[in-house]
Design goal:
Layout: H1 5-8, H2 11-14, H3 21-31, H4 35-41, H5 45-49, H6 59-65, H7 76-91, H8 106-113, H9 116-143, H10 147-158, H11 204-209, E1 213-215, E2 218-220, E3 226-229, H12 233-243, E4 252-256, H13 262-269, E5 274-279, H14 282-288, H15 297-301, E6 309-313, H16 316-325, E7 330-335, H17 342-356, E8 357-365, H18 374-390, E9 393-401, E10 427-435
Parallel strand pairs: 4-5, 4-7, 5-6, 7-8
Antiparallel strand pairs: 1-2, 2-3, 9-10
Helix pairs in contact: 3-4, 3-6, 6-7, 6-8, 7-9, 8-9, 9-10, 9-18, 12-13, 16-17
Bound molecules: S-adenosylmethionine.
C-alpha cells in the first residue's frame, strides 16, 4: 500500500508504540504546540533531542510536521505556538540536522511542507551551530591531541549532529548530516539509527593517493567519487564571466585545482598576461603532461614572459605561500579542489586571498557547500558569507539555473558510474567576492 504524504505525516505514523514514554511525552507536546508543557518537560538538552526509535521523529520534526502544508484553515494562534515551540526546542539544544527514517531533517520537513518561517528558524539554528563549531574546533585543537573525540564534543556543544565529511565534487562541501555505518533501524532499545546512504568519508590525503580515471565527461577516483563532471561546464563558463567581466586580455589569473581543465581552457582563451595553475594530484599532473594536453610545455612556452603561464605542482597550501612570497598578485582567483573540508576553503580566503588578490580583483570558488540538501546549502551560504566578511570580502551571489533533467536520479543520467549524487538543487549560487569598502 502506498501512503500519501498526509498519511505518512500523521501522528500515528510518526510516534510509534515502541517510543519510550519520556520521549513520547515531549514529542506529543511538541506535535500539539503545547508550549507550556514543552517548557516544563525541557530540563536537559537530551529532552529536546529525544528520537522515536523507529521513525527517528524528534520534537523539532513533530512541531513542524504537525503544521501540515499552508492552507486556508491555518490558525494564526497555532502557527505562533508552532514558532514558539520550535524556538524553545532549539534554545534547549534541539538538533537542527538530525535526520528521521526518511532522511529528512526538521528543516527538510519545513521546506517540503512550504513552512518558510519554520524553515528559516532551522537555517538560523544551523548557521549558529556551524559558526560555534568553527570556534570550538579551533579552541579544541589548542587543548588536546585527541582529535576525533574533540570533534564529536565540539559538534555536540554546538548543537548539531556529528559531521561526516563526504567526498564529492563539492570538494570542501561539508556533509552536515550524520550518517552512521551500522545499517538500518534495528532494535528500539538501541535508539534510532538513521537511514544509510552511500556517503564515504574522503579525506585529502586518501584522495591524493587514489588512482584517477578520466572518461566520458567525468573524472572519478578509485572509489567512484565524482571529482569533476562535464555537467558543471556552464557553472565554469559563468564563473569565468563573473571573474573577468571586462573580457579584456592581459589579466593575471590564478586557478587552484585543474581537474578536467574546463575552467583553465576558458581562462586560456582570454589571452591572460599571467595564468598560474596549482594542482596536487599525480594522476592529474600526468594527464596535464600527456602529449595531447593543451597545458603542456608548448603552452608554458607561449607565455608573454617566462614563467607567466605555469603549472605549479603541489598542494595549494604550500604552493600559494611561495607565490605570495614571490610577490605574485592576481586580478582573478578561482578555487575548486576536491576532498578538502570547509576549513581549508576558509583558510584560503582568510590567509591567502588578502595577499594574492589585487585590491580591485575578484575571487570565486566552486560553491558545492552542502549541495546535497537545500537546508545545508542555505546554512553554508550564510556561514561562508560571514566568514568571507571576516576576511574583508564582500560576496554577491549570482543565482543560476542548473538543468536537472539528467541530474535528478541517483545512478542515472550524469550520475551513471558515480558513487554519490553530490548535487541535488536546481539553482546554483555563484559567489563573486571583492574586497569590502
Ligand atoms: C573539482 S576538480 C577542479 C575542476 C576544474 N575547476 C575544472 O574546471 O575542470 C578539483 C581539482 O583539485 C585538485 N586538488 C585537490 N586538492 C588539492 C590541493 N590541496 N592542492 C591543489 N590541488 C588540489 C584535484 O586533484 C583536482 O584536480
Amino acid at each position: 500500500m502506498i501512503l500519501l504524504d498526509s498519511e505518512r505525516d500523521a501522528i500515528s505514523a510518526r510516534i510509534s508504540e515502541a517510543c519510550p514514554p519520556e520521549i513520547q511525552k515531549v514529542l506529543t507536546a511538541a506535535w500539539a504546540h503545547d508550549v507550556a508543557t514543552v517548557k516544563k518537560l525541557l530540563d536537559t538538552p537530551e529532552a529536546a533531542r529525544g528520537q522515536d526509535p523507529l521513525t527517528g521523529e524528534t520534537p523539532l520534526h513533530a512541531a513542524i510536521r504537525s503544521c501540515g502544508p499552508p492552507s486556508e484553515d491555518d490558525d494564526e494562534a497555532d502557527l505562533a505556538a508552532a514558532r514558539e515551540t520550535v524556538q524553545e526546542l532549539l534554545l534547549w539544544g534541539g538538533i537542527w540536522n538530525d535526520v528521521d527514517d526518511r532522511n529528512e531533517t526538521p528543516g527538510c520537513v519545513a521546506h517540503r511542507l512550504g513552512r518558510t518561517e519554520l524553515y528559516n528558524l532551522c537555517v538560523d539554528a544551523g548557521v549558529r551551530a556551524e559558526m560555534l563549531f568553527g570556534v570550538l574546533e579551533g579552541y579544541e585543537e589548542l587543548e588536546s591531541d585527541d582529535e576525533e573525540e574533540d570533534e564529536e564534543d565540539a559538534h555536540q556543544e554546538a548543537g548539531e549532529s556529528e559531521m561526516v565529511v563526504v567526498g564529492e565534487d563539492g570538494e570542501e562541501a561539508p556533509e552536515l548530516i550524520n550518517v552512521p555505518t551500522n545499517g538500518a533501524a534495528e532494535e528500539a532499545s538501541q535508539g534510532f539509527v538513521p537511514p544509510q546512504d552511500n556517503a564515504v568519508d574522503v579525506n585529502s590525503e586518501q584522495y591524493l593517493r587514489s588512482k584517477l580515471t578520466y572518461s566520458d565527461g567525468k573524472l572519478v577516483d578509485d572509489e567512484g567519487n565524482g571529482v569533476m563532471m562535464a555537467w558543471e561546464t556552464d557553472i565554469m563558463r559563468q564563473s569565468v564571466d563573473a571573474l573577468l567581466p571586462s573580457k579584456e586580455p592581459g589579466k593575471r589569473i590564478l586557478n587552484i585545482g585543474f581537474g578536467m581543465g574546463i575552467i583553465d581552457t576558458m581562462f586560456a582563451e582570454t589571452k591572460p598576461a599571467k595564468h598560474h595553475i596549482v594542482e596536487a594530484h599525480p594522476g592529474v599532473l600526468e594527464h596535464i603532461s600527456s602529449p595531447d594536453s593543451k597545458f603542456g610545455p608548448s603552452w608554458e612556452a607561449s607565455a608573454p614572459e617566462p614563467g607567466a603561464y605555469k603549472i605549479h605542482q603541489g598542494k595549494w597550501q604550500e604552493v600559494c605561500v611561495k607565490l605570495l612570497q614571490e610577490g605574485n598578485v592576481y586580478d582573478a582567483i578561482y578555487f575548486d579542489t576536491f576532498g578538502e573540508d570547509y576549513s581549508q576553503l576558509r583558510m584560503f580566503f582568510t590567509e591567502l586571498i588578502p595577499g594574492l588578490l589585487d585590491s580591485n580583483g575578484i575571487f570565486g570558488f566552486f560553491n558545492g557547500l552542502g549541495a546535497d540538501r537545500m537546508i545545508c546549502y542555505d546554512v553554508y551560504t550564510k556561514v561562508s558569507e560571514l566568514h568571507l566578511a571576516d576576511a574583508g570580502l564582500d560576496v554577491e551571489w549570482k543565482v543560476i539555473d542548473v538543468d536537472m533533467s539528467r541530474l535528478a536520479e541517483e545512478g542515472q543520467g550524469e550520475w551513471e558510474g558515480v558513487r554519490r549524487r553530490y548535487w541535488t538543487l536546481d539553482k546554483y549560487r555563484l559567489p563573486i567576492c571583492t574586497f569590502l569598502g
